[in-house]
# Entry
Amino acid sequence: MSVSEKVLNFNFRKYLKAKTRQKKNRNILLNKDLFKIRKKRNFLNICLKITLEELSVIQKEASFIGEIIQMTNNEKVLIKISDVEKILVDFSIKIKKSELKTGARVGLKSETYTIFKILSSKIDPLISLMKVDNIPLSTYKVIGGLEKQIEKIREIIELPIKFPEIFQSLGVSQPKGVLLHGPPGTGKTLLARAVANQSGCTFIRVSGSELVQKYIGEGSRMVREVFLMAKNHAPSIIFMDEVDSIGSSRNQNTSSGGDSEVQRTMLELLNQLDGFDTQENIKILMATNRLDVLDSSLIRPGRIDRKIKIPNPNTEGRIMILKIHLKNIRIEPGIDLWEVSKKIEGCSGAEIKAICMESGMSAVRHFRGMVNFRDIQKAIFKITKKKIADFQTTRKLFDYDI
# Structure
């Protein structure tokens, strides 16, 4: 073999090796691309399977949601599906008869109307927020001048809840609720907080304005759910503040849609007050400063049959309130609280508290570590401006600027 042939064979083998190496690299790249394609295909197949399952679920006939009205003697259940449709249905053997209680929400099969599932009770999140989880720290000791009112409210609220056997042995029906009425700032809400603390019950606070809703039927639904939540968490106390916003007298000439919706809410409240038994450990506590505008059907005997007036404190009551609010404030020795209480005649408990706080701010303003009588007088002038004329001589005596 000549030299030229050897060179030619060497080059040819080199060419073949290069081509073989190139094909191997190409096959590796093709295998990588094929692996990616197969992986993407598997992912698309999973997505297709999920989509087909969702489509099959969507194409199925929907179930109905109903509310149990009554159990019959022939193993039938009376169900309300809508406001006008009520039917007798059977229930699945997987469901215990003891679970079918009046008012429970159930799922019904669309073909046979058979009950196949017990649903959880539906409560609006806004209603759940009305339940006070952190019991207020207020006690009867921080309330001054309301000893008689405290005694009455304990007889109406606490006694039936803690000792119901007393009423059962006497055969006396328990009062359903109590209405606190009086001028603003006299301690109605504070008294309700003390009741919540002392009774140890579930405390549900509802403001009357929260039940006034825009859409028809929303206020009535919220009232129903409030009483349902109270029943599920019994013993419980429902405190309705500013009840005059929904309990005002009905006017037959009312043409406004908002007023008619407020009246529907009040009618549902009356219906709920008549609907629950006094033995269910649910007590109603209402507060208002406009007793004259309340509808007579709301405060008649059998509904809110007890009314307690919370007046402005008298001289002894004002002294007690002053002692309560000045207890943690450093005051100058020798201040006559009797004289102070006489000068703030007609003030409410909230105004007396404001006077105590303002006197402390006056001492802080003048960089003093103790409240003196001058600070208290300045606070009285600032809070009760109508009493400035009564202190003309005192003002000249102490000679200070208001």
Notes: The longest strand covers residues 64-71. DSSP finds twelve helices and eleven strands in the chain.
